[in-house]
Amino acid sequence: MKLRHLFLAVLCFALLAGCQKAEEPSRFIMPDVVVAIAPFTQPTQTSDLLSGFIPEGQKEVSRKKLAELDSLFHSKLHSSKHKFVFLSQADIDGPMAKDERGRRNALVTWAERAMKAGADMIVVPQVIELQEREGGEAGAITAAAVNMDIYLIDARKPFTLLQRTHFSEEQQALINDLTKIGTFFRRGGKWVSDIELAGEGIDKAVEEMGL
Description:
By secondary structure, the chain is α/β, with parallel strands linked by helices. 32% of the residues lie in helices and 21% in strands.
């Protein structure tokens, strides 16, 4: 009986936590600002990073997966009223730019790519790791997992990293984490794919950045 009461208490706490009002997102992007949307990339060297670190034993994310993420991101921005310039992989190919000390610099590189595209700001999505689900929606041997960052950079000098949205999650069974009950039902009570899980990270960025 005590265990049942404990379960109900945790369940109520989880539901209340899920109903808390989210903080108002920062609004750096004004209606007259032109924003470039970079394609998803996977940083594999420290110099590629805008923040964070490269995990040991990092596995390569395929071009196919990166293209799927691009398509998903673009679809989520389809109804936006902002002025977006969608960059292709060809737009970002080439050597990295260097800072005043002659060092490869990711911030300068992305800002210059935005300027070249005629944009005032640029959104840079980077997926650090992506783990595919092994199994089906009803039961997974290995759950989907994603570790990603999406950045907003002001490409008007001085170049500035305005915002970072971080999303790192591996889906867990509800019995292992009752505080995720709201997320469990939002996902339809199923085991999601890696792309679906990454979509939650994209949604988070769209909301927080006001895209």
